[in-house]
Design brief:
Blueprint (H helix, E strand, L loop, with lengths): L14 E9 L5 H20 L3 E9 L2 E8 L2 H9 L1 H14 E10 L8
Antiparallel strand pairs: 1-3, 1-4, 2-3
Helix pairs in contact: 1-3
Length: 114
């Protein structure tokens, strides 16, 4: 993925869900594989929700910033309430994430220079 993604066109009122997290240090390969599989599965589900506009992320050894883009609050609510997303949050809290923060923001204006 290229950052910023030039295909994303956001409008005032669209929503951005920002998820900033750091994985527990020293997770073994099997646990990391389960994390990655859940990550891919939840992205697949998100893409199928009406109102999903896309996502971007950046990651390094210090953590990950993941931003998903949504048409409106209703789309964000569908995502938040999806059973697989609920399970991912439960597992993230229980075994994968050392620390995390989630924010839902509203787009006031959007500018892309690519």
């Amino acid at each position: 993925m290229r950052l910023p993604d030039p295909s994303l066109e956001l409008q005032p009122g669209n929503k951005v869900v920002v998820f900033v997290h750091h994985l527990v240090p020293g997770l073994d390969a099997e646990v990391l594989d389960k994390y990655r599989c859940m990550d891919e599965a939840t992205l697949e589900v998100a893409r199928a929700i009406p109102g999903h506009l896309g996502h971007e992320f950046a990651s390094n050894d210090e953590g990950t910033v993941f931003m998903s883009y949504w048409e409106n609050d209703e789309a964000v609510a569908q995502w938040a309430q999806h059973p697989l997303h609920q399970e991912a949050k439960r597992l993230g809290h229980a075994m994968w994430c050392e620390a995390y923060r989630t924010m839902v923001c509203t787009v006031d204006r959007h500018h892309l220079h690519a």
